[in-house]
Amino acid sequence: MIIDAHTHAFHPAQVRRRNDLCASDATFREMYGDPGAKMVTTDEIVAEMDRAGIDAAVVAGFAFGRDCDLRAQNVHILEAAQEHEGRVIPFATLDLSSPAWRDIAMEALAAGARGFGELRPHNQGWDPLGQEAHELCNLAAERGLVLLWHVSEPVGHTYPGKHGGITPAELCELATAHQETKMIAAHLGGGLPFYVQMPEVRSALRNVWFDTAAAPLLYDDESIARLTGLVGANRVLFGSDFPLLSPKRHLERLRAQLESDEAAAVCGGTAHILFSDRRPS
Ligand SMILES: [Zn+2]
Predict the structure, then answer these.
(1) Residue 164 C-alpha to ligand 1 middle, in angstroms?
(2) Which of 50, 77, 100, 137 reaches 20 to 30 Å from 199, CA-CA?
(3) Is residue 49 domain-resident?
(4) Span between the terminal Cα atoms of the chain, in Å
């Protein structure tokens, strides 16, 4: 079972209206203002999964600043999950600074969302340690949902979209307060795995998984082997960040640095267990 735990899709109309979105949304402009930054629909993700031999993928959205854009994107991803039963694991995106976020979350849950993300609180202007964030964590724990957070490394080179997610320290504090809430810390958790060597942090982060999204652009060729050494292969999820990177090449890179049993866990076994927790909504 091969599962890509981190891909992004847009509604077809959003792909066509790219220039309008650049004008209305500063974070979108930062990440997609360059015409070379690819945008894809769910159909293109499924076609890429077929090419790469991937069974299922988490399809997440983009953290738009306007509710109408979030809703359109969520509807597209949730409809695709029904169309491609079992292959698309749909995540909906939320903006907790919007008074409508609870309604948008409930609409997405009713339509089958399995999680929320990729969450970028600082881009959208909400506090990842604020009251709404705690409410979201409680909701996720109650419903068996997974929260996918954009976590970036606080050091090193900069790139479009690097900042604006949640910091490793904020995520550690939030996860410590919500140990029943399942969370994915994207992009190797921005370095948070190093601190899992502290016993109290290891214990508090027992429901946090770390994905490999964009790793080939950030870290060296042994980074995932070191990550599994720190947190265990049962806490690491292969994520490509497609269409940013090719899942096929990313998988080859992972397999080259891991033992076969570890590779099997990272490339899908761990995600399969994580997403098999289905509760009636
Ligand atoms: Zn991200």
Answers:
(1) 10
(2) 137
(3) yes
(4) 26
Phi first, then psi, for residue 237 (nearest 5°) are -120, 125
Q: Number of folded domains in the chain?
A: 1
Write the CATH number for 175: 3.20.20.140
Span 61-92, pLDDT tens digits: 999 999 999 999 999 999 999 999 899 999 99
Distance (angstroms) between ligand 1 centre and the Cα of 11 equals 19
The pTM assigned to this predicted structure is 0.97
Task: Output the pLDDT for position 85.
Answer: 87
Residue from 201, 213, 209 nearest 242 by CA: 213
Write out residues in the chain with pLDDT < 70, as ranges.
277-281
The range of the structural domain enclosing residue 198 comes to 3-274
Nearest partner of 59 among 8, 13, 95, judged by Cα: 8
Rounded CA separation 76/42 (Å): 8
